[in-house]
Amino acid sequence: MGVTAASGTPQYSGTFVPEIWSGKFLVKFYIQTCLTKIANTDYEGEIKKDGDKVIIRQIADITTRKYSKGANLIHQRPEAPNKELEISEARYFDFICDDIDKYQTDMRLMDAWTTNANKNMQIDIENEVFADIYSDAASTNKGATAGAKTSGYNLGASGAPVAITKTNILELIVDSASVLDETNSPDDDRWYLMPPFATGMIKKSDLKDASLSGDAESILRKKSGEVGEVGGFMLYRNNNLTSVTDGSFTAWHLMAGHKSALSFASQITEMDTLKAESTFGQIVRGLNAYGYEVLKTSQLADVYVRKG
Q1: N-term to C-term CA, the chain
Q2: Residue 232 gets which letter from DSSP?
Q3: Which of 24, 32, 61, 248 is the one with CA 20 to 30 A from 186?
């Protein structure tokens, strides 16, 4: 629409103020993803096509026995079942960039749209994975009586999610660490996924003081999805975690774990451009094959909460 003309004045819209196609795009904001930060991706290079299966060998537990002089030794034949990481999932994108669009803007539309497709694919895959894996946490790593040895930690249960506030969220993080401690989870490479409202509570808590969190800088100064290290966990803000309606509340499945718990493998197996038959333009399409598996359920905790 051109500049408004006074009454009785001819409107020459399009003559003096012509329509212009901008070479710039409106900024697109994407949900930050962190799947590859919390999962091990050791087997990613072995994917070739959708449907492949990666066989992962496990280390057997070796038994030690009390020794007595003169007693016959008992031989152990170490056995450990293999784990299978099936590359059984795939997502694709397929779009047409009309030739007329390419000429009406000096930006490379296909590159911009391909970037958008890849970003959205990351978000969709993360939503799928997180909605599926929280239920794989060991039975001792969830519920109102979590803890493999003590059953003494409340991580929330259906009908009774933990109501978290800025005053008790640190306690919840420490309890989650204790639950993993009771399964002999290694101290390094631990992670914790929280929705924005929970990480916001952390920033309102005493941990905003860098001297208390142990970080070189205050948690308040963090700019990325990586909130900081608390209670032995690297905390990540993530907006793809699963939420459910529980009574009158919205409850969330937060997750805590060790990097050995989850294996993820993803690879773009097809990517090509070709001339469209039904119009003047180029077809751009890509196929991403991927798979994921919880390899160590004892290293994964499901923390069921609501906003307090």
Answers
A1: 49
A2: T
A3: 32
Q: What are 244-252's contacts with CB under 8 Å, separation 24+?
A: 246/158, 246/159, 246/161, 246/306, 247/159, 249/161, 249/306, 249/307, 250/306, 250/307, 251/156, 251/161, 251/304, 251/305, 251/306, 252/161, 252/195, 252/198, 252/304, 252/305, 252/306
Four-CA torsion 168, 172, 178, 182, nearest 10 degrees: 140
Helix and strand totals (H; E) in the chain: 6, 12
Which CATH number is 60's domain given? 3.90.1690
Q: Tokens 């103020």 appear where?
A: 17
How many Cβ atoms from other residues are within 10 Å of residue 6's Cβ? 6
Residue 238 lies in a domain: yes
In a domain, 20, yes or no: no
Domain membership of residue 242 as a residue range: 31-308
Tokens of 260: 């050995």
Q: What are phi and psi of 269, to 5 degrees?
A: -95, -20
CA distance 47 to 266: 8
Residue 9 lies in a domain: no
Walk along the chain (308 residues) and give the pLDDT tens digit of each residue. Answer: 555 656 765 555 555 556 666 666 677 677 778 998 999 988 777 766 656 788 888 788 888 999 999 899 999 888 878 888 888 899 998 988 887 776 666 567 778 888 888 889 999 999 999 999 999 999 999 999 999 999 999 999 999 999 999 999 999 999 999 999 999 999 999 999 999 999 999 888 776 554 444 555 555 445 556 788 888 999 999 999 999 999 999 999 999 999 999 999 888 878 888 888 878 888 888 888 899 999 999 999 999 999 98
Does residue 26 sit within a domain?
A: no
The answer to whether 293 and 265 have CB atoms below 8 angstroms apart is no
